[in-house]
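Q: Got a minute? One more chain.
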Amino acid sequence: VKRFLFVMATEDDSKEKLLARIAELEAVNAKLLKDKHGFIINSADVYENLKKLQDNFMERFGKNYSALRTGFDLQPWIKAAAQSRGLAESAISLAPPRRRQLVSCIITFLLLPTSMLLTWVLLFLAIFLDKSRILGGILVIYFIHVYTDKSHQEGSRALSWFKRHSFWKSLRNYFPVLLLKQNPDTVFDPKEVYMFGYHPHGIISVGCFVNFAADANGVSEMFPGITICPATLEANFFIPFWREIILRLGVISVGAKALKYVLNKGPGNAVLVVPGGAAEALDAHPGTHSLTLNRRSGFFRIALQHGACLVPIYSFGENDLYEQVPNEEGSAIRNMQNVMLKYLGFATPFFSGAGSSGAAVPMNPIPSRVPIITIVGDPIKCPVIENPTREDIDKVRVLYVEKLKEIFKQFADQYAPQRVGDLKIIK
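A: Always. Here it is, folded:
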């Protein structure tokens, strides 16, 4: 069983005590490994002890600590989990997923298909089995509400307690997902409005959901005074039950009307868009870093019209969560997907999820357990231009892409050492 641990210390004399405690924990772990029956029951206790050890040092030394690397087998991509909070390095423990982490992951990624299935089941019951028609009446009223409600275009119905619930933290720890600033000292002024751009899209944009919709990594503390509204396809808000969940997470429509509504609310408001969209999802293959940005003029046009600060974000590991059927341009599969994209606005990638088992299963929505490291770049202040020209848009796009490439160049060797290619803007 692999274990990863960063141990905190500020004084040399405390390191000796710390290493002694680690040796004790390693001995307990070795004993459990020999007793296979006991290991199944008690391995979580060792992991819990390691976590308590970290927490004790965090409590004792606060944020003024330096990191001491122990002899545990650490992967190259594990470096800093809280740079953005002023820490030189951070602590992370990666053990086999605990039951609540695995359960939270399964529940989360089955929410959408379960909502769709539940809708059809209730419709069947209302039409064929409910002689009283009460269920049918309730469904009609709810469907009218779904069709007429414009909350997703006029801000959101975010619930703070729901966004910060421990359920989402268990989901975060399953991968795990880390959120960092490119430059820890960068201050995001709450007197500005912002447009965050998340890259790459991946199959489902897991890092975007965990960090910014669910707020599982303390994004509200990282950007104090700034309310960030993640945006998604409007079609999501017409799926019964599922829409209620994402609305309570503060998600809005990615349409221009919704984005402008939030930005027009003034300083301290921000929207988060995944510019690559469904087109970029079709290029989400493990190890690759291919982006769709050349066709996304609307993203930059809105930023210029509102004088917003553009913030590039890049997530390493996002494209590694799912395997996808080969779909090179010109192939029959890709041609079909392009037709769907043209007429429906989205296309279904033919993917395989592996969960924590590592065995890929076609169309399994449970992603592989791959770390996601999300890096937030420095803001790019846009001038206010009411009617930006093509030259204005291209100028901002070039600057934005340069900043995005800076992030990739700075962190790629650390967090994507086994990549099959560097960052490319292909569309």
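A: The longest helix spans residues 99-129.
Q: Perfect, thanks.
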